[in-house]
Design a protein that fits this description.
The complex is a heterodimer of chains A (about 775) and B (about 240). Chain A is of the alpha+beta class and about 775 residues long. Helices cover about 55% and strands about 15% of the residues of chain A. In chain A, a hairpin with a 5-residue loop joins strand 12 (about 490-505) and strand 13 (about 510-520). The longest helix of chain A is centred in the C-terminal third of the chain and has 41 residues, at about 685-725. Chain B is α/β, with parallel strands linked by helices. Chain B is about 35% helix and about 25% strand. Chain B has helices at about 50-60, 80-90, 105-115, 120-135, 150-160, 180-195, 205-215; strands spanning about 10-20, 25-35, 40-45, 65-70, 75, 90-95, 170, 200-205, 215-220, 225-230. In chain B, strand 9 and strand 10 (about 225-230) form a beta hairpin. In chain B, helix 5 runs parallel beside helix 6. The chains are: A alpha+beta (about 775), B alpha/beta (about 240). The structure holds adenosine-5'-triphosphate and magnesium ion. Magnesium ion binds next to helix 1 of chain B. Chain B: This is ABC transport system ATP-binding protein. Chain B: Keywords: ATP-binding, Nucleotide-binding, Transport. Chain B: InterPro entries: AAA+_ATPase, ABC_transporter-like_ATP-bd, ABC_transporter-like_CS, ABC_transpr_LolD-like, MacB-like_ATP-bd, P-loop_NTPase. Chain B: GO terms for molecular function: ATP binding; ATP hydrolysis activity; transmembrane transporter activity.
Chain lengths: ~775, ~240
């Protein structure tokens, strides 16, 4: 092997374009993979770990104690892998003097022991409730304690009784808001019985449903009141990041696939253009295996350097990305898990080596005698016929010769064309993915949909989000405020709204329901299915809301708040990300909280209206209205968009470099032809034009073939990604390729190919004929 | 210079060697012997099979039938790896178009041959440098092939071929790409080598090269030996 190293090292040093291209391609792909894998791992990691530690419930079920007895429940629960319960349960109102920041109603469960086979609670502060008069509240230890949140030792009134808070516990299963001793529970008049189950398999909705069927099959009908699946919680906990991780993953995989193809292409190019090199090595006495080793080493050195650099870069990028993306969700200093680095550092070089293996094997098996005579006698054939036909056309001679050049060496040309098609396809796909995702995100988060928003701070004691010290209150009534805004010059549409935390019956997760009045069609929401609400008891929800709860447009849900219950029909599906936000109208609010006033006015104005002047004009009428920031892209979204743009650029660069390398190799190989053409009287300029023409034509052809492939790939990939991300992508978001963009892409293909050809062609054209011919 | 196998023993022995490339027959029943210390020139029209003959002797390709024995090794019994090992120890080759490795400096091109046989890089460079001085190209050692003149390149190629003290030096049109003066320098070099005992097998179109360097000329026509003459060297 001692002779392999000097040859490989020399090739790495002297074939600079090849080395740099491989290094950069691998570096960028590795970066993409680390970012994508890092996001994927981090988005579900904390939740899954906590769930495993607590042996969290895969299914939380509540039963009607009047229909099913505890012993029946215990008996049927043996179908599960493990269970806890039955526990008595009650949903208790706190009264409206309530503590700000605490839920309006408390799902309270009587439990003697925080441990047990399922849902082992983490009592992180204080102790467990041992006797009557004590209560333990459910709270995430990392959650920030809101203003006025209950503290240890303080008391609270529940169902007419005063209870002392003796501890805080955390249930990842979200099985209850509070726990009391069983003795205490009896006096709180339980209305339901809770069972907590773990199943052998609970990775999919089907598996959880199957488990649910198994544990409820023998029970009287109507006994089961409500359930909550672990998968829904998981989706909620991992939240918004999960929408985008699948998208980012696609970029990562795409980057990897493109890197593999391009490395294979670069190595093939090196082998094809290195026939003579291989022949010489063999004639010197390199064994076939040594020849293969030379080619593998030549590729591996820049690949390993690129991989190491990419891993570092990817970690830096992913870490700042993750820390910012997950800060709302209580995670601090999120880093890329070590397994990602290990997988990448080991996996990427192996992949690169594998992609280099096929062409290297070819180098290995090439017959020495053939290899060494390769290139000394170009074969005549079809190529010449094409060239003869081209010379008969009216094109300038250098152009027609240039167009004929690719046909002289069909194998080499096919390789170049493959590189161009690959490059154009991946750039097309990347640009399309980036555009679809940005379009989706802009629409879903309603960026810039509303010109100005005015906030009417609630007067019921709660501090305004912007100024907790001195909350100004609106001076006019709700209706008068709306009339005031509508009559202010410039106003085009006004939507009034307010929010209410509500609960979907049978679950213990809070929904945020927004009730709208006025021109809600102008808010920027896009209805994907069904229609807007037009009467009481109607809601519009997101795709994710439907998916997580197994519902469809047309179904009816039960919403609860402050002891009031309202049944509402899902009349439409709108485009937004959140799975726990529900849109409704003022008529529906009237069924729940008729006295509530609007807290937000979203206004669109005539184009050209001065927004500051408009706001001042309104505030002259009611100084209690405050301007707030409208919907803007949140930090996570901004980060995702930046990442997508970055990844698209990276992928584009990678593809372009691959093309560039192949074209350079190809043109270099032709130096001999160029010398020959000059020897028959072509000027250097003509030679350059000729070579650039031939490669530009290849670029154009590659564009014509690659763009449709990219568009097809985009049409296949985007819906699949959307499905994985539990979002609905309307058809218009697939139409991201206007003619201007397609033209731009083709031009880019031609430009990259022409640039790759220009430099070597120019240098070949300007070296003296003798030298060129001599050098071969 | 070479290991002495006795004057009587042939360094190269071909027995009824036939080589076909698909339909065409490049070598058609060639039998010949080359003895240690001989300088043999092969002449003949283009396409008559001269280069093919060299490929057979160098173990770069295998005959369709017949046997090739070089320095006691029956090439037919060697696998690809065995052939590579055979080449690096026993064969030195010179080509019309030099076939140097463009990525390596002149000196490293030559040292590489020794490194292949397990010599350390430092030792290989030292021996290469000695050869460079002997061949009068010592000052060009750190130059890359692209910057060398044709004659200089061919001398580097000769140095590389001699590096492992081959049993036989094979040269395929070694002056074919050189002008008269550079060609003569290479001819002198080959002659000198033969005079200190290097066995030589030379393919050429050049009558002058043949008569100057070779003691025996084999004429090839259509893949067959058409005749053989012994020569009085002119120099
Ligand atoms: N790799 C090959 N594949 C097919 N045919 C080949 C191959 N190598 C040689 N030939 C054929 O074998 C015959 C002999 O070729 P060879 O190269 O030995 O001739 P040559 O005597 O060296 O000619 P020249 O003086 O032109 O170099 C020719 O007809 C040639 O076309
Ligand atoms: Mg020949």
């Amino acid at each position: 092997m001692s002779a392999v190293w000097p040859v490989s090292r020399a090739a790495v040093r002297r074939r600079r374009v090849q080395t740099v291209v491989i290094g950069v391609v691998v570096l960028l792909s590795t970066t993409m993979i680390v970012v994508a894998l890092g996001l994927l791992a981090a988005s579900s990691g904390p939740f899954d770990q906590a769930y495993a530690r607590q042996s969290g419930a895969h299914l939380v079920a509540s039963y009607d104690p009047s229909k099913v007895s505890d012993s029946q429940l215990t008996k049927s629960a043996s179908a599960a892998k493990a269970y806890s319960g039955p526990f008595a349960m009650a949903t208790l109102g706190q009264g409206l003097n309530g503590n700000f920041g605490a839920p309006e109603s408390l799902v309270t469960v009587g439990r003697a022991d925080p441990g047990g086979p399922v849902d082992r609670l983490n009592v992180w502060k204080g102790r467990w409730a041992a006797k009557a008069g004590e209560i333990v509240l459910n709270r995430n230890p990392t959650a920030s304690e809101g203003f006025g949140a209950p503290t240890l030792g303080s008391t609270m009134r529940l169902a007419g009784q005063t209870l002392t808070i003796v501890g805080f516990a955390y249930s990842v299963s979200q099985s209850a808001d509070a726990w009391v001793a069983p003795a205490q529970m009896t006096s709180l008049k339980p209305t339901a019985t809770q069972m907590l189950y773990r199943f052998a398999q609970a990775a999919t909705n089907e598996q959880v449903s199957a488990g649910q069927t198994a544990v409820t099959s023998g029970l009287p009908s109507g006994a089961l009141v409500g359930t909550q699946s672990y998968l829904g919680l998981r989706a909620l906990a991992t939240g918004e990041p999960n929408t985008f991780v699948p998208f980012l993953m696609v970029f990562g995989w795409l980057g990897l696939a493109v890197a593999v193809l391009i490395v294979a292409n670069v190595v093939s190019g090196a082998v094809v253009s290195g026939f003579k090199h291989i022949g010489v090595l063999k004639s010197l006495g390199f064994t076939p295996t040594q020849v293969m080793a030379v080619y593998l080493t030549m590729i591996s050195i820049p690949a390993i350097v690129g991989c190491a650099g990419g891993t570092v870069l990817g970690n830096v990028l992913a870490e700042s990305l993750l820390t910012r993306a997950f800060e709302n969700y209580g995670a601090e200093g999120v880093t890329v898990p070590i397994w990602v680095d290990v997988v990448v550092v080991l996996g990427v070089p192996v992949l690169v080596a594998l992609s280099a293996l096929l062409p290297s094997l070819r180098a290995r098996s090439l017959s020495a005698a053939e290899a060494i005579s390769a290139g000394s006698a170009p074969r005549a054939g079809r190529g010449l016929r094409v060239q003869r036909w081209l010379s008969g056309t009216r094109l300038p001679r250098s152009v027609s010769l240039g167009l004929g050049l690719p046909f002289a060496r069909p194998a080499r040309t096919a390789l170049t064309l493959a590189a161009v098609v690959l490059g154009v396809t991946s750039v097309t796909l990347a640009v399309g993915l980036g555009k679809s995702l940005t379009t989706y995100q802009t629409a879903a988060s309603r960026v810039d949909a509303v010109d100005v928003s005015l906030f009417a701070p609630p007067d019921n004691g709660g501090p305004a989000p912007n100024d907790p010290q001195a909350p100004p209150a609106p001076k006019l009534s709700d209706a008068a405020d709306e009339a005031l805004i509508r009559s202010t010059p410039g106003a085009v549409s006004v939507t009034a709204s307010t929010d209410l935390p509500m609960r979907l019956a049978g679950t213990s997760t809070d929904l945020r329901v927004s009730f709208y009045r006025g021109d809600f069609e102008q808010l920027g929401y896009r209805i994907l299915d069904g229609r807007w609400f037009d009467g009481p008891g109607q809601v519009v929800v997101s795709e994710r809301f439907l998916r997580q709860r197994g519902l469809a447009v047309g179904d009816t849900i039960t919403l609860q708040s402050e002891g009031k219950t309202v049944r509402a029909q899902i009349v439409g599906k709108a485009m937004y990300n959140s799975g726990d936000e529900v849109l409704s109208n003022w008529q529906t609010l009237a069924l729940v909280a008729p006295s509530l006033r609007a807290s937000l006015y979203e206004i669109n104005v005539k184009p050209g209206t001065d927004l500051d002047a408009f706001v001042q004009a309104v505030q002259k009428g009611d100084s209690g209205l405050m301007r707030t920031d409208g919907q803007d892209a949140g930090t996570f979204v901004a980060i995702v968009l930046a990442t997508v743009v970055l990844l698209t650029l990276m992928l584009g660069t990678v593809a372009a470099l691959g093309v560039f390398n192949t074209v350079i190799l190809n043109t270099r190989e032709r130096r001999r032809d160029l010398g020959m053409l000059k020897s028959i009287g072509m000027t250097p300029a003509q030679v350059t034009v000729m070579v650039v023409t031939s490669m530009a034509a290849l670029g154009a052809l590659g564009g014509v073939l690659g763009i449709p492939l990219g568009i097809i790939a985009h049409r296949l990939v985007v819906p699949a990604m959307a499905n994985g991300a539990q979002v609905a992508i309307p058809a218009f978001m697939l139409d991201v390729y206007p003619w201007s963009l397609l033209t731009l892409l083709i031009l880019a293909g031609i430009l990259i190919a022409a640039a790759g050809a220009y430099f070597p062609a120019r240098s070949a054209a300007h070296t003296t004929i003798a030298k060129v011919l001599h050098n071969e | 210079m070479t290991e002495d196998l006795g004057n009587e023993q042939a360094v190269v022995r071909l027995t009824a060697v036939r080589k076909e490339y698909g339909e065409s027959v490049a070598l058609d029943g060639v039998s010949l012997e080359i003895h240690a210390g001989e300088a043999v020139a092969v002449m003949g029209p283009s396409g008559s099979g001269k280069s093919t003959l060299l490929s057979m002797v160098a173990g770069l390709d295998r005959p369709t039938s017949g046997a090739v024995v070089v320095h006691g090794d029956d090439l037919g019994s060697l696998n690809e790896k065995g052939l590579a090992l055979f080449r690096r120890r026993r064969i030195g080759m010179i080509f019309q178009f030099f076939n140097l490795l463009d990525d390596l400096s002149a000196l490293d091109n030559v040292a590489l041959a020794a490194q292949l046989t397990g010599t350390s890089a430092a030792h290989a460079r030292k021996r290469a440098l000695e050869l460079f001085e002997e061949l009068g190209i010592g000052d060009r050692r750190n130059t890359y092939p692209a910057q060398l003149s044709g004659g200089e390149r061919q001398r580097v190629a000769v140095a590389r071929a001699l590096m492992n003290r081959p049993a036989i030096l094979l040269a395929d049109e070694p002056t074919g790409a050189l002008d008269t003066r550079a060609g003569e320098q290479v001819m002198d070099l080959l002659l000198d080598l033969n005079q200190i005992g290097q066995t030589l097998l030379l393919v050429t179109h050049d009558q002058q090269l043949a008569t100057r360097c070779a003691s025996r000329v084999i004429d090839f026509v259509d893949g067959q030996i058409a005749g053989e003459r012994s020569l009085e060297r002119t120099s």
